[in-house]
Design brief:
single chain; 227 residues; alpha/beta; seven-stranded mixed sheet; two-stranded antiparallel ribbon; 9 helices; globular
């Protein structure tokens, strides 16, 4: 995901001397690129392991859920890549980002959008049903349309919102089995799948899907806090 975030980073266009908030910074790979452009970065992530990895790269990271951020007009801009779709308290996250920005500040980034991984997720659900497991009734990710996304962020106070979907088929380097067992762990947890069966299910999904090219759809955006 960090390697795929370059376009969103260019949209942010960090400037020398700016102070930028990286929401869901992960291991800090993109945070370091922002620093390389002369900006100061504060990262936020709720994973102790990823936060520590970012700190080892020299990034200052606050270990907290993005919905619980309490920054008050401390940043010139905010950035997020491949993280917002993991955050169920989307309206609370939007309000926290808005509060963190100075007047006129911008928020740019990218996340999963409507239709993201639809075929791959369908292949997994079909395999679960075949094996007698009921897929969870509610999605664990938020993959919005541009309009739904804009509604949330307009509600938080942002304006000049430009959000658009980008189809981006992407090869999964570690393979479909690894995607199933790692990135759909929460889905498998909710379906009650024992750990010992997950690798086998991943292999079956890989065979059913028939390709390592995943049907990613990204939602790329930029917006402003009114001056």
């Amino acid at each position: 995901m960090p390697a795929l975030g370059a376009a969103a980073l260019d949209l942010l266009d960090p400037k020398d001397g700016e102070r930028i908030l990286d929401v869901g910074c992960g291991d800090g790979s993109l945070s370091t690129l922002i620093v390389d452009r002369g900006a100061e970065v504060v990262g936020v992530d709720n994973s102790p392991e990823l936060a520590e990895a970012a700190r080892e790269k020299g990034i200052f990271v606050e270990l907290t859920d993005a919905a619980d951020m309490t920054f008050d007009r401390q940043f010139d801009a905010a950035f997020s890549n491949a993280a917002l779709h993991w955050m169920p308290k989307k309206a609370q996250v939007a309000r926290a980002i808005f509060a963190a920005l100075r007047l006129g500040g911008r928020f740019a980034g990218e996340m999963g959008g409507e239709g993201n991984l639809a075929s791959l997720r369908e292949a997994l659900d079909e395999e679960l049903v075949i094996r007698g497991y009921a897929p969870p009734a509610e999605a664990t990710n938020w993959y919005p349309t541009p309009d739904d996304f804009a509604d949330i962020y307009e509600g938080a106070g942002f304006d000049r919102i430009d959000a658009r979907l980008i189809a981006r088929p992407t090869e999964i380097d570690d393979g479909i089995t690894a995607w199933v067992t790692t990135f759909r762990k929460g889905w498998l947890d909710a379906a009650g799948v024992p750990e010992g069966e997950r690798g086998e299910i991943g292999d079956a999904v890989a065979g059913r899907f028939g390709s390592n090219i995943a049907d990613y759809v990204r939602l790329r955006f930029i917006m402003r806090k009114p001056a």
